[in-house]
Amino acid sequence: MLDAIRSAKVQQSEAGGITQHIGAYQVLTHHEGIERPITFIDTPGHEAFTAMRARGARVTDIAILVVAADDGVMPQTIEALNHAQAAGVPIVVAVNKVDKEGANPDKVRQQLTEYNLVAEEYGGETMFVNVSAKEHTNIDTLLEAVLLTADAALDLRANPNKDARGVAIEAHLDKGRGPVATVLVQSGTLRIGDSIVAGGGYGRVRAMLDEHGDAVEEATPSRPVMVLGLTSVPGAGDTFLVAPDDRTARQIAERREAAQRAASLAKRRKRISLEDLNEALAAGKVDNLNLILKGDVSGSVEALEDALLKIDVGEEVDLRIIHRGVGAITQNDVNLATVDSAIIIGFNVKPAERVAELADREGVDMRFYSVIYSAIEDIEAALKGMLKPEYEEIQLGTAEVREVFKSSKFGNVAGSLIRSGEIKRGTKARIIRDGVVVGEGIEITGLRRFKDDVTEVREGFECGINLGSFNDIRIDDVIETHEMREIPRT
After folding, report:
1. DSSP string for residues in 135-181
2. Judging by beta carbons within 10 Å of its beta carbon (0-12, 13-18, 19+), is residue 181 exposed, middle or buried?
3. Of 118, 322, 388, 448, which is least packed with CB atoms within 10 Å of its CB?
4. How distant, in Å, are the alpha carbons of 42, 115, 309, 438, 460 from that of 430?
5. Across 223-283, where does the E strand assignment appear?
6. Gap between the Cα atoms of 403 and 289, Å rounded
């Protein structure tokens, strides 16, 4: 959808890898004879990127909910809608793929009424626009709906004549440029040379690029730009501000970094209250799987962390993310993994020079992925593998004692009739007398059919059963055999 809007409203550039990281685009529209810019923030539709959608809803003024006319309302649609409603922003619904066979835009309108989104044609206040991203149908109508909603529901004014403030939408570590952050200016004006603090990083704005990779000198409110010159990669969703000078920027960044470090350490320590102490002692030691996450951009790392922490295989195993970061895997990551016995997960990144040798020497397991669900499946399998096996008792057979024979060589032998299943030599048995268990954990040491030793006797046949040293056998006792089988983890 966003590609359709960009291709319909702005000329595409040859910026190469620039646009894949910026995640925000500005288009110019003409409404009532006035040129007005609209900034779009793109959030992935897949379920693993919940945090991205929640963050996107918080930093936007209007949410465009894209629903496929052929599929209707899906779980991700409901989740995105909940984020937008929780953020308290107006919603415009784009009913996409109306050109496809089987498309039913009216069904989408009916389904969304269940979630308090009532179309204007049904007497509600929400604007619905039928569009086709593939055919570029009604893109202008969608943009006009956004402008009309903004005029009706919002007072979008910001003072450009002050120091800039805003939010980092995305960030990554560029091999040639260093830390690069995509920021959205929410108030003030950001200029080349400003001292800036973004998350735990700081620095002087060395250069700014727009969504096409073109250099810009300043960014006014609602303008997304890529900022170069930071000392470290900020997290996606971190706020940024302009400081009076470099010293002040460094001090603010150091305080932020200290707060983040304290929060990270608090996360790593498994705290327990007095109320939970008895339960913890009863449950025994909890096994931990420690992970270090490194990725190409902050949003990917955040999405991966969020997805991994949702894996639930029970209370026996605990998953901990002890560190996450952006960029290549470094020696510090390997050293941390060595100390905390962690596995390093690399998402679209590789180790720096000589790091692989260090990891191999220290025995640190490094896994590399380019598809988020491959990582999730592997970690879930590893967690299930750490679980202690569970067993269930399977009854094999029962025999009724009809006669007791005394043998000087074998002790008492139970002359029995197999009532159900089969009785096997070497299996465990229990003796039941008048409904009460009188013997447990007894081994079937011998089976005889007439004068022959056999390994098993099936239902309906008679046999002699030798229970080893257990001689307390009486007529009408029931011999029940069983075995313990491991329950497969699902």
Report:
1. TTBTHHHHHHHHHHHHHHH-------SSB-EEEEEEEEEETTTEEEE
2. buried
3. 388
4. 66, 60, 45, 8, 20
5. 224-230, 239-243
6. 57
For residues 242 and 252, what is the distance between their CA atoms, to the nearest angstrom? Answer: 11
Q: Cα–chain-centroid distance for residue 476?
A: 59
pTM: 0.58
**What's the rounded Cα separation, in Å, for the pair 237 and 183?**
9
Place of tokens 């409404």: 31
Radius of gyration over alpha carbons of the chain, in Å?
34
Hey, what amino acid is at 153? A
**Distance separating the N- and C-terminal Cα atoms of the chain:** 38
Segments in 286-406 forming alpha helices (H)? 298-309, 331-340, 355-362, 372-386
DSSP of 214-283: -B-SEE-TT-EEEEEEESSPPPTT-EEEEESSHHHHHHHHHHHHHHHHHHHHHHHS----HHHHHHHHHH
Q: What is the pLDDT of residues 211-256, one digit of tens each?
A: 888 899 999 988 889 999 998 888 878 889 999 999 998 999 888 8
